[in-house]
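Q: Protein A?
A:
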Amino acid sequence: MNDRSDSLLKVRPEIKTTQLNAMMGNDERFQNETLRPIIKFQNLLLVEVFKNYIKKHKNAFYEFSLEKRLEYIEKSIQKDIKFRNSLKGMIIGQFTVEEYALYIQNSSALNKRMMNMVIERLKDQMQLLENEALAY
């Protein structure tokens, strides 16, 4: 590995996952070994980026019920291609060259996993978004 790869791997949080075993598929292994730590590491940035997205869309998010807010998170990432690509870039930019080589072998399926993980993480962090609502 090179200095960049070593540096990237050192700053990632360690995540305890179910045991990685031989039965695990390549996509699931990549998800657990690469995507989870990166998404956790990028968490605060992802939350701030979503807050900015809300602001750019006239803060309508804060007027919705909890159920509609959860739906808004999902739809904004699934439907807004520019926004989704921006989120993907924040994650892919944290890949080592070796991880990128694995990623491009099945990028479509891995992108789906990646965005589903980001959606769930934002939904789970609704309280951080709620605090912003109190300011409006």
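Q: Protein B?
A:
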Amino acid sequence: MSTAPATTRRTGAAWLVVGAAALLGAVALSFFVGARAISPTVTLDALRDFAGTPEHIIIRQIRLPRTLLGLAVGAALAVAGAVMQGLTRNPLASPEVLGVGNGAAFAVVLAIYLVGITSPYGYVWFAVAGAAVSAVVVYLLAGAGRGTATPIRLALSGAVLAAATFSWTSTLMALDERTLDEARFWIAGSLAGRPTGVLLAVLPFLVVGGLLTVLLVRPLDALAIGDDAAAALGFDPVRYRLLGALAVTLLAGGAVAAAGPLAFVGLAAPHLARQLVGPDHRILLPACALFGPTLLLLADVVGRIVLIPLELEVGIVTAFLGAPVLIMLARRARVVAS
């Protein structure tokens, strides 16, 4: 009986190696591929010894910041999605289940509309604040009336708030042309045109959120078998759901502030990781940190080449590719529920 867990861990470790190799490949493609292809030799030269040539400028000033941002944002969204799925015991959960993504986007657009914020450095504070307020509102809605904030009530409350904040965001953009011009590029979701300073601005939020997920590894495994079982094992469900909500708020809020709202990354990457490495969060969360940026960088590469010399924003690509994943997950969830 003890060989099965050991076999599962070995399988999970093997998939982590595969995920790391896939991530390295995605990083390489992110440097090499675009409207102007650049060879690996030139790329390495640009990273080691900047000479000011056009190819070196593309690598150092455009593709390097873009790739680093993709790594951070992809990992943050994927880990946040895995935490949400663990907290709610719902395979369809993602950061949007708490309205975090749409809440952060609404806060940024509201800041543009009311205050005239135009710098990406200013987005981060409003995005994280919007994500935090959204999480609090969802918990209050889910816990209102009789009963407690169960996974189903959380999911329903999050869906309601996400729909509301999306409509408010659209209304603000329709009311003011300046807000529309400023926000439409950001709200589509993109890794392009973001200076390295944007990543540095959101990095503290992502690091703290990532550290909090480390504290959630054992509680998430306990919550997977039910609230009563988790409480019997010494894990307070309410306390750890609040801690998980804080982690998701920091991770998703920072990611949205940096790259805009990106659909399906927080849904598809955890699902893929769970299918490959199993439900043990000790392996699942690191796998998500590998698969998330891999999927995001590959989507970004597709967006660069599908309409050369034009580009599709990565948020459009992830939404297009993620729709079949959502349909598949919905069908599986229906089968399990029946």
